[in-house]
Amino acid sequence: MADTRAAFLAELDKVAPQLRDAFERAIQDIRSTAQARAIDEAIKRAIETGDIAGGVQQVVAAIQLGSEFFAPLDRAISEAFYQGGVWQLSNLPKRVSIGSQGPLIIRFDGRHPNAEAWTRRHSAALITEITDDTEKLIRETLTEAVEQARPYRRVTRELLGRTDGNQKTGALIGLHSRQARAVRGARRELDALDVRYFTRTLRDKRFDSVVRKAIEAGQPLSVADIERITGRYSERLLHARAKTISRSEGNRAMNAGRAEGVVQMIERGEILPEHVSKRWEATPGPRTRDSHRALGGAEVKWGQQFISPVTGAAMDWPHDEDAPAAETINCRCSCTFRTDWRAVARWRRAKEGLAA
């Protein structure tokens, strides 16, 4: 199997759907177990009293947002890390001339303390990030509701969505706070019959004729129509977020697993650090940071860091946990780890006193 960026992306395509589904299951679980009546009362009280902080606290408590909801995502991240390590070691050459020691056979240890520590630490950080942003989403939604004295039951429906079979759909809960702002903006545009609504790329275009007819007639859309349209927009944004998380977190976990695979080979004494080099693989496209595009193709020895010629940031590899957040958030780059197997063979034969 060739260790190329194309081969890595093909492997990532196998784990990304599992991460996407795990995130969507977690969100559906949160929506379906939230205490709607308690949320109704909390929002109503906040609108009547203007106590936004108290309302946010009560809504968060009624949603019962906790790390336990994200257990499927936690497991999927661990599996992506494991698959990254397995894939890295599967790229060993079929035959390495290593003297009397026989063929080199190495298996990835997914239960190694380093491996378990990484997945535990990273999953916790991601889940904290999601829950903190969800609280921000609730605060912004409730602030608007208080300022505009909106009907509290309508706000609850927007937060939790509507029941569709055994699922809740069209909810703000599960979106990033930026996406929730987009949904609220779309609602305001529909309320005002504002043609800027049509610039929203992820809107459900099946409703365009309904919106266009209302604008041309100057007749306001019904509350039911607006909720249905914004609900579909919200669901599309949720799917987009799930896809983004699956790609970015899958990339991050698999790259970390690949690095751990190399570490395990070194720790077992199968190779030396000087046998390994690292190559930065920048993702083509306008969304790639200039600082990462400049690193594309750069190669350093194991133990050395990549230094961005643009920002001066030092990184062990893409998604380096010790790098500044500005260098890692939504990074789509990857790293190829190359082992000089001829040098490994010479070293191993020399250890046996054999001629190189």
TrEMBL record:
Pfam families: Phage_Mu_F (PF04233). Residues 210-335 form the Phage head morphogenesis domain. It comes from the Bacteria. This is Head morphogenesis protein. It comes from Alloyangia mangrovi. The lineage of its organism: Bacteria, Pseudomonadati, Pseudomonadota, Alphaproteobacteria, Rhodobacterales.
